[in-house]
Amino acid sequence: VAPHLAHRGRLNHLSSPRLILPPPPRLSRLCTAGMASEDEAELSLLECRVCFERYGPGGQRRPRNLPCGHVLCQGCVWALGGPESRRLECPFCRRACSSSETSDCLPLLQLLEVLGPECSSVSLALGRSAGRAAGPAAAGLGLRLTLGGWGSLVNPTGVAACQRSGRLAVAHDGKKRIHVLSPSGSCLQRFGERGSAGNDIKYPLDVTITSDGHVVVTDGGDHSVKAFDFEGRGVLAVREGFSLPWGLDATPESEVILTDSEAGALYRLTADFKKGQLKKCQMIRSHLISPRGVAVSQTSGAVVVIEHLKAQGLNNSSTRVKIFSADMDLIGQMDNFGLSLVFPSKIYATAVTFDKEGHIIVTDVCSQAIICLGKPEEFPTFNPLISNGLSYPVGLTYMANNSLIVLDSGDHSIKIYSST
């Protein structure tokens, strides 16, 4: 056992089969009025629940997902796996797995990334306060339905809606990476096995649904883009030419606009998904800085991209929103400094979408809010749509009935808001 585990007196024998530790508190509990202090929130969210050391971006402190959904630091994964790191048991639910089956916990890594000078604590980064109400406070929006939750979804990373059928697709870190849900929330299909076969999905980063009814996923595990029908049959996999495909959105013509975060590029992918044929994969914009979230206006064809900027100094990362016309001409942009001149607090955007009227909507993980930035021609304006009831929003889309879908990885759920 690593020495740091014993000297704190928290855990004496990691390998003991009789040791049953309490499960980690769900992140959603942190926003309830019963939390004793901000210190407790930080302890629960950013410390490994085995060794109680604070998570970090690399080395032994890097947060890792187990197949069961629980999260440990890399050091505890190594310690539990023994000298050969072949097999370990989850200390919370006792499910056995191998070290090779663990994966990075992307939501926690992103949270560590956003903790900067103005977001230097968990309570500030997540906007917690003990007396804060849990219900949504939106401009004409009310929470209609909550789907998923811990165990049903594991660290979800992307969500999409089919405009014709109303079905939802969500990408997460479970054994079957893609869940297809009905408009009422019942599970219709699960597919995308974790594995190394051709149509398996190693690490999904985002998902979209084309107008002809195909589910398209970016896979950060093997740097590919994969398409499936609603029954889960793989129809196309594009593995060449990408460094790290990340965000994607579909156009009304069933083309796919996607970002390559590592290459700093924006692509347009044209394919006959029914026949499984790639027609064209064209780079339409370059020299972007770590682009991730992307959205296409279904009316004007405008494209909005979220860049993730890294300044000098620890935890000085920020985001920038860029807007392009349908012809890919830059028509507007605003980084954190510019936004701070207009908005009351720092904004760190993780996801973006257009509503039916063409307004740009973003998630903000610093204040767990959903914010409308206005139409491209009036960008930026400031109109908070949802300011309470979210933990760590990472996905955003609209349904055909204009309901707003928010993917909240903080409590592993999908939240559906509609006009009140």
From TrEMBL:
GO terms for molecular function: ligase activity; ubiquitin protein ligase activity; zinc ion binding. Residues 48-94 form the RING-type domain. Keywords: Ligase, Metal-binding, Repeat, Zinc, Zinc-finger. It catalyses: S-ubiquitinyl-[E2 ubiquitin-conjugating enzyme]-L-cysteine + [acceptor protein]-L-lysine = [E2 ubiquitin-conjugating enzyme]-L-cysteine + N(6)-ubiquitinyl-[acceptor protein]-L-lysine. The keyword Protein biosynthesis does not apply. GO terms for biological process: proteasome-mediated ubiquitin-dependent protein catabolic process; protein polyubiquitination. It holds the Pfam family NHL. Its EC number is 2.3.2.27. InterPro entries: 6-blade_b-propeller_TolB-like, NHL_repeat, TRIM-NHL_E3_ligases, Znf-RING_euk, Znf_RING, Znf_RING/FYVE/PHD, Znf_RING_CS. It comes from the Eukaryota. It is an enzyme of class 2 (transferase). SUPFAM superfamilies: NHL repeat (SSF101898), RING/U-box (SSF57850). Gene3D superfamilies: TolB, C-terminal domain, Zinc/RING finger domain, C3HC4 (zinc finger). NHL repeats lie at residues 148-184, 188-231. PANTHER family: E3 UBIQUITIN-PROTEIN LIGASE NHLRC1 (PTHR24104:SF47), E3 UBIQUITIN-PROTEIN LIGASE NHLRC1-RELATED (PTHR24104). This is RING-type E3 ubiquitin transferase.
